[in-house]
Task: structure prediction
Amino acid sequence: MAEVVHMIDSEVFMAFSTYATIVILKMMLMGPMTSYFRLTRKVFANMEDTPLGGSAEDRKKMIRVDPDVERVRRCHQNDLENVIPFVVVGLLYALTGPDLSSALLHFRLFVGSRFIHTVVYMMPLPQPSRALAWMVGMVTTFSMAYRVLTTALFL
Result:
């Protein structure tokens, strides 16, 4: 038990906590960003989301698909698909006791790749820029997973 407390009190765990919080907050901000795009473009997913006061026909016109709104939604979906595994694997990785420099490299690469991915997705910049940003984050998560598995297998 004392060993787990020591791991949680380590610099690696504190670094993980910091970078995980940054990337989680970034992911959470994609929800309000989607709302902003929906409101400014008057595009809604459900009838009850449309502003009150207009005629039923006017409100039905607001239920449509907008490319800008869909772009933000897809970017948010991609964050959900990548940030959650990073947080889970990153926590396990931090508990394996890696070198601080190696851990910082992993955490910074992932967080940087997610910010770059979002900027590239929202601008939009041509491929392979978005794919490369995604790949850096995915390889980083797999690298941490490899460390977790090899540490667990050789215990």
Summary: The chain is about 80% helix and 0% strand. The chain has a mean pLDDT of 90. The radius of gyration is 20 Å.
